[in-house]
Amino acid sequence: MQKGSYKSGMKLINIIALLLVFYGLHGYANDQTSITSIDSLSYAQFTAGDWDGLIETAELAKRNNIDFKWLQQRVGYAYFIKKQFYKSMLHYEKALDYDPADEISRLYLYYNGQNTGRTAFARFHASRLSESNLKEIGEKRLRITDAIDLEYSFKMPDNPDIHQAYYMRLGLNSQIGYKLSLYQSFSTFNQNTDTTQTRQNEYFVLLGWNPTAKTNISIGYHSVGSKVIYGSDSFYYPGNIFYGKITQQLNRFDLALSGASFDNDWLGSKQLGIHLGINSAGRNNINLTTSYYRIIETGLNYSTGQNYSYGRNVIKQTAGIMLFNRLWTEAYVNLGNLNQFIDNNGLYFYNSPDPTIFRSGISGFWYIIKPLTIYLNYNYDTKELLTTDMTYNQHSITGGLIWKI
Q1: Of the candidates 116, 283, 288, 340, which lies 20 to 30 Å from 297 by C-alpha distance?
Q2: What's the pLDDT score for residue 34?
Q3: Cβ(96)–Cβ(102) under 8 Å?
């Protein structure tokens, strides 16, 4: 009887001891994930350059509902060093929520914007920096000659009746405020057939405004002067394009809605575009963008003398990746009839007599030195002859440079 009581008593003591040990360990674990301990550990990892350890500490803090400004800044810097700029951007934005006047958060949001090609986003945050920080990063409110770009394209159709063509363009970007930009472009296109000569001179201007860091509103105008020479006769077709677009960034997603209108004395078109982009958080900054366009064209049918109106769809898929530290590449596919198609924020207008019905291509942008970028592009087009249902192929090589002044 006493022996049984002794065993029962020992079991009770063991259970109590286990409970006390568990409680003690639980208390120890809670102590290890207090704000003070996370602050001390993350600071030590930050000063030691232990970026992976710092990111793990931030995850531990998140699981325990611990958050504060300096933690977000430290982990944001860790991702910045690892060249994961979208993740870095997210953490500095969270730090900014704690202290909107903090210039460290603003400064690294500026750097992240520059490293992801989001110049408008970067300059919005630059507008909140002190004069000393602005001087350090070399930003100014007004830059009339912010950047100059040059482009030359050589087009080679495989139809013997259609001659080779070329396209040349000169562009100037101006920063007319921290939240306002102005881009202008002059271009010319030339192509001959056995019986005609086609010349087209263009002027394009686009005004961009960022009311917030992640919202951009753009409006543009594009003048198109087409001239066709047939024998001793010349025909001039001046036209005008009006363009608008609103873009909103939501974390790693870009949502946009665009609209454009083209008119000359012979025909007109209306274009509506819906755009969805997603940006990878990895170090290669992978970007995928899908665009859907609806085009309504109106004009005069010369064979019947009747007015016509019809709609068509165009889909464009683009994928971009930072293959190497200074090399950005893009590949794209366009599906649909591109006649009267307005692309690249209103910069390019496709109104060839032989419309493109399929396009694919690849581009590479090489950041040689800080102010200079050169790029090379290859296009493959399937084009449809205007007077028949026959098709032919066209290959285009485009080269250019961008000089940041």
Answers
A1: 288
A2: 87
A3: yes
> For residue 88, is it within any domain?
yes
Check whether residue 206 and residue 106 sit in a common domain: no
58 with 161, same domain: the answer is no
Contacts of 252 (CB under 8 A, 6+ apart): 86, 278, 279, 280, 281
pLDDT digits (tens, 9 = 90+) for 176-220: 999 999 999 999 999 887 788 889 999 999 999 999 999 999 999
The model's pLDDT over 29-43, given as tens digits with 9 standing for 90+, comes to 444 578 999 999 999
- Quote the CA–CA distance of 192 and 108 in Å, as a whole number: 52
Residue 205: closest CA among 188, 189, 222, 218: 222
Would residue 248 count as lying in a domain?
yes
Same-domain status, 111 and 154: no
Pure H helices in 33-118: 35-48, 51-63, 69-81, 85-98, 103-115
Q: Cα–Cα distance between 90 and 84 in angstroms, integer?
A: 10
**Maximal CA-CA distance, the chain:** 127
Q: 3-state class of 179 per DSSP?
A: coil
Specify the number of domains making up the chain: 2
- Determine the structural domain holding residue 330 and report its residue range: 143-404
